[in-house]
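quick one before i forget lol
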Amino acid sequence: KLNSIFASGRILYYAEDETIERGFRIYKKRPNKYRSFFETKLAKKLVQLEVIYDGENAIQIFSHGGREVYRENLQGEALDSIKFESKLEGPFLLVMEENKQYITISGYEFIEGEKCILLKIDERSQYPYRSIWLSAENFQEIKYDRITLAEGGEQLEEVFYRNFKNMQGVLFASRTDKFINGKRNITTFIDDFNVNYGLYDSLFDLDLN
């Protein structure tokens, strides 16, 4: 059973005129503890954003050149977003555990040459997915889409899982690509992935860090 993960890698953010690269480290532990570090080099100094979630409350710590600049408690949508990020399950298992009647098998589709089972998700689900494509071979998510709200109204978000690797019996996508309204927005590369890594609860303690 998957109890904890530690992953590190790079994220590319595609803007109109530039691509920004950030390094990251993410720690997750059941049932819902989460800690992440995102780092960007700016003018030879490292800017780091750290988030710690202990299962109830979350803080965000901003550092520049190795020195803490400020920290703040996360609330509302920001806290909800971290709660969602802290889950170890993928989209399919999340909806299955919520209520399997919210999932309808809609048929088969090929995604990048791979035969997939297309699942439609009932809008009563608390999760934001609209459709999920599972590999017909190993039942891993190959793609999902959802409608998200932005300043300009609704937008279509599509996420593709690619370059699967096996780590201690766990299949994971070492690359994900996110598209917004058909335009590539973010690519994530996982360079190192460890499962059931010995993570102490103190790593996620808001008072100790």
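fyi The mean pLDDT is 93.
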